[in-house]
């Protein structure tokens, strides 16, 4: 009998539920299977009275590469990401992301939907959609609700990779990795009620934008994915070659 290894590993460390994305074969892409496991783990953490906060991290060299185009095609990803981001924002416990590798495309939406994030020196970030004939439609909702829009425009429009220092500067990442210990200590020292009510204040703008924009952004994503240009871009990505418009 074959047993499928979990895509999300769970453990608890002094009141912190540590959830580790463990799907390195596809760079922790947001497949329907991984999202289902992550959703279940978040629900379990929400119910557990011993858990004060959640730490979301990863195995391998990539925190998250965005949607899993090979497993789920081009249509399911945006709606799945919207639901996951809403769950993260509405969870009554803070979610801290720890990034020690690369973050790409929809993975930036996952990162921005977390309440606090820290990243190491090896981390890199890129809104790679623009180079595929796409746009960071759904991922842009938490990014533009929380990051400096003027500073983010360069990276969204060019698809260039950028480092942790720039991610902190534009507000996509809260702090460098060395701040993690103090952040977790602060969360452990805070009351459950205080954290839940304080989190409502910090997520209000993001949730408002999610309610107002998610339908339009999901339709935009579907329209772009259905285009001939995006088909060429995705095919080039899967075949590991430049798209036809690259100069």
Could you name the key traits of this structure?
10 strands; 10 helices; alpha/beta; 247 residues; 49% helix; 2-enoyl-CoA Hydratase, Chain A, domain 1; Enoyl-CoA_Hydratase/Isomerase; four-stranded mixed beta sheet; Enoyl-CoA hydratase family protein; Enoyl-CoA_hydra_C; single chain; ClpP/crotonase-like_dom_sf
Task: Give an account of the 3D structure.
This is Enoyl-CoA hydratase family protein. InterPro entries: ClpP/crotonase-like_dom_sf (IPR029045), Enoyl-CoA_hydra/iso (IPR001753), Enoyl-CoA_hydra_C (IPR014748), Enoyl-CoA_Hydratase/Isomerase (IPR051683). It comes from Actinacidiphila polyblastidii. The protein has 247 residues and is α/β, with parallel strands linked by helices. It has one domain (1-177, 191-247): 2-enoyl-CoA Hydratase, Chain A, domain 1. Helices cover 49% and strands 16% of the residues. It is built from 10 helices and 10 strands. It is globular. The termini are far apart.
């Amino acid at each position: 009998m074959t047993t499928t290894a979990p895509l999300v590993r769970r453990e608890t460390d002094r009141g912190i539920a540590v959830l580790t994305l463990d799907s390195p074969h596809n760079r922790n892409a947001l497949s329907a299977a991984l999202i289902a496991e992550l959703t279940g783990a978040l629900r379990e953490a929400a119910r557990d009275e011993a858990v004060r906060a959640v730490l979301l991290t990863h195995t391998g060299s990539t925190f998250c590469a965005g949607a899993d185009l090979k497993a789920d095609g081009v249509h399911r990803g945006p709606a799945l990401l919207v639901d996951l981001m809403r769950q993260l924002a509405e969870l009554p416990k803070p979610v801290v992301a720890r990034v020690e590798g690369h973050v790409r495309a929809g993975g930036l939406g996952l990162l921005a939907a977390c309440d606090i994030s820290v990243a190491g020196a090896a981390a890199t970030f890129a809104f790679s959609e623009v180079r595929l004939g796409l746009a960071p439609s759904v991922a842009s909702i938490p990014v533009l609700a929380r990051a400096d829009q003027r500073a983010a425009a360069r990276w969204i429009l060019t698809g260039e990779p950028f480092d942790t220092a720039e991610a902190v500067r534009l507000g996509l990442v809260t702090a460098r990795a060395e701040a993690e210990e103090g952040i977790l200590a602060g969360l452990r020292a805070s009351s459950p009620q205080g954290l839940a009510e304080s989190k409502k204040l910090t997520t209000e703008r993001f949730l408002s934008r999610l309610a107002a924009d998610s339908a339009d952004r999901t339709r935009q994503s579907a329209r772009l994915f259905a285009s001939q240009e995006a088909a060429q871009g995705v095919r080039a990505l899967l075949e590991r070659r430049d798209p036809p418009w690259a100069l």
